[in-house]
Amino acid sequence: MNGNTSHGDVKSGTTSHADTSPRDASLENRKYIRWDTKGVESIPEGEAEDIQAVADMINAAQRGQFNRGRHAFGGTHARTQGLVKGELIVSDDLPKHLKQSMFAHGGKYPVAMRYSSEPGDPGLDDRIPQPRGFTMKVFNVEGDFLEAGQGIPTQDIEFNSTPALDLADAKTTREIVALRGKYANDKEGLYRELEARKDATLQKARDQVRNTHLESTRQYSQTAFRFGDYVAKYALIPASETQKKLYEETVKPDKHESDILSEWLKNFHAAHDAEYLLQFQLCENLEDQPVEYAGKVWDPEKYPWQTVAKLVIPKQDSFDYARKSYWEDSMRIDPWHGLKTLQPLGSPNRLRKVVYPASSSLRRKLNGRPEINVTNIDDIP
Q1: Collapsed DSSP state (helix, strand, coil) of residue 62
Q2: Of the candidates 232, 237, 220, 229, which has an alpha carbon nearest to the alpha carbon of residue 340?
């Protein structure tokens, strides 16, 4: 496997997240790599063909799904676990190196969020351990937007519960998506193929994740992004004591029902506010912190996580049916919908630039629902 990621880091997401002081001079004065430095991105030969092949395979899977259930979903993160609204709060006293992009000044932004299970099966049993997702659509954002996000004043941010991405680059994604399609109902056959690969540990880790309460789960960008002048990954860390205590609450297949994760979320959000820290991990060494290959965790002991904002979610119903239908059938999250100063970087993100709109376009066509680029959070039920 490319990189020296430990199995524990890959499958559980238990990387260290000390809440570093924003006034730590040692962090302010480190030599962070600029986003436009030569070598940050390097497009390999044949990548465009790999990306198109992935888009075609995802679309084929969507057509198969529609044929079975007469409704199409996204190629991944098909199972909604919860939908909430809250506020992203940026402090005005961040140190200079963290005053980047939309975090350059203090402010508050309305945010719509979705909890999900990562696979493309909307009926996936919650008792089956798999990576979980979390997405944010941040509203009232100002600045110069990427081409795909022109005219849409939002910043889309997506997370996954594992810090390393098994679909680590376009070539790997093409190979793994093909294998998963070929052995969709034959896990033993799939594992025989995976175990013959150099990245076998990374590829099998998704089946060994800790299956716990989503409100206690750390979430990671997995891939790298421009962070104003620099390059960084980001993470979302549960911050309230109530959330932290829920980490010990794990899913028990012989005790819990198949929808336990969404039920836990409903019970939590009905009774408690939630709070998260949005942290960034800046790039200092491209060899040790690769941008093109997302299958390696950037060592948090060498490259600390630093807090730039706080996410606050008040008590509410986290499984409103109208909101669920609106989000799934009309909305989508795309990291290329956002600011140029938060541009997605690396092979997996160049893949998303093609695959996400292709997946969304087919889904809208099959379901007969137009895509809605929401510009006001109040338009979401």
Answers
A1: helix
A2: 229
Q: What band does 23 get if pLDDT is binned at 50, 70 and 90?
A: low
- For the chain, the residue count is 381
Q: Which of the two residues, 15 and 350, has the higher pLDDT score? A: 350
CB atoms within 10 A of CB 44: 12
Residue 10 pLDDT greater than 80, yes or no: no
Q: By the 8 A CB rule, do 51 and 358 touch?
A: no
Position 25 scores a pLDDT of 74
Q: The whole model's pTM is what?
A: 0.93
Burial 174-196 (b: 16+ CB within 10 A, else e): bbbbebbeebeeeeeebeebbee
Q: How far is CA 345 from the centre of its chain?
A: 14
What's the longest Cα–Cα distance across the chain?
A: 58
End-to-end CA distance of the chain: 44
Q: What angle in degrees, to the nearest 10, is found between the helix axes of 187-195 and 170-182?
A: 150
